[in-house]
Every structure is written in structure tokens, then in C-alpha cells.
Amino acid sequence: xxxxxxxxxxxxSLTEDLKWRTHEMQLWEQVxxxxxxxxxxxxxxxxxxxxxxxxxxxxxxxxxxxLEYISRxxxxxxxxRSEIAAVALRSKLGQGEASKNSSAHTAIVELLREADxxxxxxxxxxxxxxxxxxxxxxxxxxxxxxxxxxASRHEIYQSTxxxxxxxxRNDIAHGREEYVSLSDWxxxxxxxxxxxxxxxxxxSNAAANEEYRRxx
Length: 216
Fold this sequence. Notes:
Elements: H1 7-34, H2 37-71, H3 82-98, H4 102-114, H5 137-146, H6 158-173, H7 182-208
Pfam families: HEPN_MAE_28990
Domain MAE-28990/MAE-18760-like HEPN: 11-212
InterPro entries: HEPN_MAE_28990 (IPR040788)
């Protein structure tokens, strides 16, 4: 995984990651289209799992790459917009919430009082972006909010994500006999790709416009 220090690095990461995912889903359509009739159902079952993997994978990696880019800017917590500052402080706040020890709670208060001067050491490992292994629209909305981006423009596709993609994927993952037609699969894939392209654009624009910074 390449280090993301500049906006060019971020742009390259976002573009290349979406490119190979898009290509793989397009190849799957070609395979399904060329199958014999009795083979199509099985191929599309695998295809639904593939679309879900790229849905979760790109949202997670795009957000992670953006956090890495911000983290390497050398900013302080008070220079970040609230949503991203919360990510920077999340682990410490979580430790205090989980602890029953008053000294841990005191440490959290001290942390908050000193937060303005703290370096913004944003976590950006793959575990930072919490998809909960089930990236329904509500979770997607929360992830986008955490990086200062907007999922509301895609609310029209909530049922596509929750009731079509995730329900079918979960049924398949649990061994249930769940099938979709090729036209349905293409429709689900195309809607997912539309959202992912916008995720890429929002992150790219946010970086270019320094929307991660706290407004004066």
C-alpha cells in the first residue's frame, strides 16, 4: 500500500482502486452473459457477493486513504472540522467510556481540555473505518459523516443497498437458495457504482478544498 502524502497520491489511490473494482464487476457481467442457461444462477450468486465486496471495500479504503492524507498534513486537533477531530480522539474517548476507573475518566477530561494543542494523529488503519461487516445504508451514512462528506444525496438508493444488495448477499452467505436475474444484478451493480463514483468525487473535492479544516 503506497503512502499517501500529497493530493496527487490521494487522487491516484482513489482512481486506481475504483478502476480495478469497476473492471472486475464489468468482467463478471461478461462471464454471466456468456454462460449457458443452467450456469447463470450460480454465477450471479457469486456476482452479488462480489458487488457487496467492492461496495464495502471501496467505501472503507476511500475513507481510510482520506484520513491518511489528512493525518500526514501535520495539523492540530483544533484545526480539524468537528467530525474529523472526533475520529482523532475516538480511541481515547472510547477507552474512557469503557472504563469504570475514575482516573481514566479524569484523563479524558484533561485530554479534552488540552485537545486544541494536540497533534491530529488520525488513525488510518483498515480497522479505523467501521463497516461492521454489513455495510447497510445507515452505516454508510455514518462513515461519510465521520469524514465530513454527505450520503443524503443517495437516500434514493437506500432500498437498493439494504433490501436488494445486502439481503441477497446475506442470504447467499448463509447458504440460502437466493437468485437474481442478470438484469437485476446489472441494475444493482450500476447503482452501487454510481454511489462509489460520487464517494470518490466527494473525497477528492474535500481534499482539494481543504474541507477537513475547521472553519474560522
